[in-house]
Design a protein that fits this description.
alpha/beta; Spore Coat Polysaccharide Biosynthesis Protein SpsA, Chain A; 2 domains; 8-stranded mixed β-sheet; two-stranded antiparallel ribbon; 17% strand; elongated
Length: 302
């Protein structure tokens, strides 16, 4: 039984400190581990630092792209080298490793779950607004009749060997495979933690974000429907206030536009969130080409 930590890297950081946290945690739970860093194309200095720092650590491997790609592609390429491990823990490098999350992942996995998701909850007034947003998002999901979304992180989770191999053999890939409840027959669980935004570096976080064209289109339509809804609603309020007679047909038409734009706004807002979470599809051929050109350290070239 052996874990592998798949760590996508898009900025420079202290790899030794991160390694020490993983090593200490794995010793506590008595499990062997390897680490695979997958670095973006502009991370040449970081790649050299990893090789020099872990020269005597056989359990550290690294892959560096020859060009800049997004985080999802880094994860997808790295997963090709995770099939021989009992389970894979994907952990984005835009934030510090949380030892408690690792322990919770492993405990859940050992209890029989194939996939363990991480969900971040906020506190105070932020939690209130988060719950309102999730209510309408989940309502939209239900209306669109698609798979339930755990609203989990797409770059921090545990996948067991079967899940990794299933994803790897699919001809097309996107983040949906790792964040929506779309794995029929796979046991899954959600681990919740309090999201501490104060410790985030917004400049680093932005390097890990990607926006698809579908997201841009959905956002545009979402804003348009919101404008139409607000304009018609304001007109309706003014009409009532000044006793403006729109006639029966005019009143029915205006109310229909108000409710129709609200309904369409909900759908487009949901699609906007989905398109952001799912991202663009990646073909296997593109992944294989990027992998062939990548520079590798302490890793067998397949």
């Amino acid at each position: 039984m052996k874990l592998v930590f798949l760590l996508p890297v898009m900025h420079e950081f202290d790899a030794r400190e991160q390694y020490n946290i993983i090593e200490t945690t794995c010793k506590e739970i008595k499990i062997d581990f390897d680490i695979i860093y997958v670095l973006n194309g502009n991370m040449q200095k970081m790649f050299a630092d990893i090789r020099n720092t872990f020269l005597e650590n056989d359990n550290v491997r690294a892959i560096k792209m020859m060009s800049d790609v997004n985080e999802h592609k880094l994860i997808t390429i790295g997963m090709k080298y995770c099939e021989d491990y009992s389970a894979t823990i994907i952990y984005t490098c835009k934030e510090d490793i949380n030892a408690n999350v690792i322990k919770a992942f492993v405990t859940s996995w050992k209890s029989g779950n194939n996939i363990v998701y991480l969900k971040k909850a906020r506190t105070g007034i932020k939690k209130f607004f988060q719950n309102i947003g999730l209510f309408f998002y989940n309502l939209g999901i239900k209306i669109l009749k698609i798979y339930r979304d755990f609203n989990s992180e797409d770059d921090i989770q545990l996948l067991d060997q079967e899940a990794v191999r299933t994803i790897n053999q699919l001809p097309e890939k996107n983040r949906q495979l790792r964040i929506l409840d779309s794995f029929v027959g796979f046991n899954s669980e959600v681990v919740s933690v309090v999201d501490n935004k104060k410790n985030r570096n917004s400049e680093v976080e932005n390097k890990y974000k990607t926006i698809s064209k579908k997201y841009t289109y959905s956002l545009t339509f979402s804003i348009l429907t919101a404008i139409i809804f607000l304009c018609c609603l304001i007109f309706q309020i003014v009409a009532v206030a000044v006793s403006l007679d729109l006639g029966l047909i005019g009143e029915i038409l205006l109310i229909s536009i108000i409710f129709g734009s609200a309904f369409l706004g909900l759908l487009f807002a949901t699609k906007t969130a989905l398109n952001y979470r799912i991202g663009d599809y990646i073909q296997v051929q593109e992944i294989n080409l990027l992998d062939e050109k990548a520079e590798k350290y302490n890793l067998k070239i397949k």
